[in-house]
Amino acid sequence: MNRWVARAAGLLPAVWLGVLLCVALIATPAGFALLPRNQAGALAGRILGQEAYLSLIMGVLVLVLERWVVRNRPAASVSASARHLTTGTLLALGTLFCTVLGYFALQGPMASARLGQGAFSFTQLHGVSLTAYGVKVLLVAGLAWRGAGGRPAITSS
C-alpha cells in the first residue's frame, strides 16, 4: 500500500501541472482566437472556474497523501519538525492559497470592476489573478519535479 500511495503522490502533481498548462496555453487562448471578446471572456471564466475547483481537490489530495506517507515513515528517518511541515506540504498549501486568492477571492471584485465599480480596475484585478495562477503553476511544477525523482517530497519507506 505504501508503494501505491507514493506512486499516486508522485503522479498526481504531474497530471495537475498538465491540466494547468493546458488551461493556460491551449484552452483559454483558443476561446479568444475564435470567439468575440465577451463570449471568450465568459468561456475563459467558466474554464478557470472549473480549474479552480479541480485545484482545490488536487491540493487537498496532495496534502492528504503527503501526511499519509510521512506518518507511515519510520520515526528514525524523519525529524520531528519534518513530520509536521514538509516541503510538499508547503508547496501544496501555497497552491491552495493561490487558488483561493486568484479565483474565489477576486470573483466579486472583478464583476464589480467590469461594471466600473470598486476601488480597483478590472485590469489590475486580472493582473493579480494572473499572477496567482502563474505562481500556482510554479508551485505545482515544484511538486511534480519532486515527485518525479528530482528530490522526492513523498517517498515510501
Task: Explain what you see.
The protein has about 160 residues and is mainly alpha-helical. The chain has one domain (about 1-145). Helix content is about 80%, strand content about 0%.
Helices, strands, pairings?
Elements: H1 2-34, H2 37-71, H3 80-84, H4 87-104, H5 107-114, H6 122-147
Helix pairs in contact: 1-2, 1-6, 2-4, 4-6
What is the number of independent domains?
1
Net shape: elongated
Poorly predicted tracts of residues: 151-157
What would you report as the Rg, rounded to the nearest angstrom? Answer: 18 Å
Helix content: over 70%
Task: Write a brief caption for the model.
With about 160 residues, the chain is mostly helical. The protein is built from six helices and no strands. It has one domain.
Main features:
157 residues; 80% helix; disordered C terminus; mainly alpha
